[in-house]
Amino acid sequence: MNCSRSCGSTNIPFPFGFEPGCYATRRFQLNCASNRTLIGRPPVKYEVTNISLDDGLLYVNKLSEFEDANMNYLSIYYGGSGYFGQQLVYGLDKSDLSEEFGVWRWSAANLTCENAKNDSAYACRSANSECIGVTHGKLYIGYRCKCSPGFEGNPYVQNGCTDIDECLIPNNCNGACYNLKGSFRCCPHATSFDPVGKQCTPDKRQNLILGVSTGIGSGFGVLALALGAIVLVRRLKRGAQRKIRRAFFRKNKGLLLEQLISSTSESVTHSTRIFSLEELEKATNDFDPTRVLGHGGHGTVYKGILSDQRVVAIKKSKMVEQSEIDQFVNEVSILSQIIHRNVVKLFGCCLESEVPLLVYEFISNGTLHDLLHGDPGAKCLLTWDDRIRVALEAAGALAYLHSSAAMPIFHRDVKSANILLDENFTTKVSDFGASRSISIDQTHVVTIVQGTFGYLDPEYYYTGQLTEKSDVYSFGVILVELLTRKKPIFLNSLGEQQNLCHYFLGRLKDEAVMDVIDSQVVEEANQSGIDEIASVAAMCLRTRGGQRPKMKEVELRLQLLRARRRPCRTREQELRRDGDTKPLLSTPVKPRSTSVAMAKNVELGVVADNPPSRTLTRCYSMEQEMAASSEFPR
């Protein structure tokens, strides 16, 4: 069919056209009048000045009324009310039509590319074309066609997209250019294009051999240089690492610690040693964050497995100042002197890193703080008897530090987070970074105030004088935690922060202490036991340190309370348990209900009266309990 493809100077490509059969559909029909291409949108007529297939744009000028009156046009409006489903240009509002000239965006059909490809009237006829969506702002108005990259022409015509010869483009290739269908290949000098392999190859075989030989020779040379450099770098690195580790060793007062460990008795230090950094990195998988057990006041604790399969806790100090190094040395110094079943055991330390490391025994059940305050709504794993035992063991450890160690030691950071529990819920006092040891003839030492808010002795806070009674005050806070299961600083019913000790002492003064006791304690304990612990806690929390009991006295009171909780055993039970142990005879006294009467009975060593054929029970006095407990190792 003979179709006109121009009107005046305007080229009219398919799918547009003038004559029937020369356009894709009627909405692409134009009119040529007086060498001007016209399109109508009644009541206004426009002149088409350019049609862009690549960009999908129609450039138009609005005709004047004079021109409008003297020119015919073919309206693309047809079908009555169905026009809006047939219009050529989508997404135009009234403001677009009022312009003297403008650019209209057009599409082949109001379909998505996915739907259009399945339509028999799919407009992209050329094999080397592709479908793209057309939008006006956020409005999707249909699809149009475009030649694929490397091709040009009309995508709406069969075989309309033809290959572009990129080699004809100036300065497009710095070498030998070979045109391919839809692309091209630029081969460097001294190479040629292989149409089978579609790659650039050397012009001659000898060039390839020469290149391979040169490459192999250069490769061996580079490999030799690389191996030599690697060996040299490793040696230099090892030497530098040794120097750095020696520097850290001196900075971390390694010589002092070596002397300290070697000077203490062999019974204490037979398992204490200085570890290498490499050994601890291997134990913690290079201090993997997943191995972190917790963050203490003086460092981060990691779980590690030594080469002998011992599971340990490795404390990495977070020091940045000399004072932090002094605290590390202080902790090693103190722990190297202590051997007690209720104090965490020190296996050794490492001084080859920027921050020194301590290696402890691993305590599996976490801290007393976590057990008491982990989930307030759940029942605590510690029964009343467990709480008394934990308090007794912690008191025993602190009493040992204050009076039984080679040199008196004040912990200075006693809190529930520093009381660990092993798999049997045995108490282990830990974190001696802030502790101070003093000479045997000293009663106190003046220091910079350290500790944890809520546990801090007010007298120590105001005077700076650290005494053993400072630890007693902090231990009193722990007793109140065990009774109430509240944190030292807790939120009251009004949502305000409140000091637990002040609140507890106030309720005790008002004789309403049972209002703050943990419900589990109320269920499991008797009134006299609660009164006794509350009394001991109140004595420990006295404002003046001189009025507080010593830790040894606190330990005795707790032992007395625990002795009351133990069921008495008959003579036959004792003989079965102890063999030939003789019973302790005492005057029968009827037990009383108050805690004072019970304390008096135990102090006197009394037991219940029995008939003539009776078997004697074994209820010890406080002194007898102390004598019996002294047989067990600390």
Automatic annotation (TrEMBL):
Residue ranges with Basic and acidic residues bias: 569-581
GO molecular function: ATP binding; calcium ion binding; polysaccharide binding; protein serine/threonine kinase activity
Keyword NAD annotated: no
Domain of life (superkingdom): Eukaryota
Residue ranges of domain Protein kinase in the record: 287-561
One biological process term in Gene Ontology: cell surface receptor signaling pathway
Organism field: Aegilops tauschii subsp. strangulata
Location in the cell: Membrane
Binding site for ATP: 316
Stated name of the protein: Protein kinase domain-containing protein
Key words of the record: ATP-binding, Disulfide bond, Glycoprotein, Kinase, Membrane, Nucleotide-binding, Serine/threonine-protein kinase, Signal, Transferase, Transmembrane, Transmembrane helix
GO annotation, cellular component aspect: plasma membrane
Region entry Disordered, spans: 569-592
Taxonomic lineage from the root: Eukaryota, Viridiplantae, Streptophyta, Embryophyta, Tracheophyta
Membrane topology: Single-pass type I membrane protein
TM regions (residue ranges): 208-233
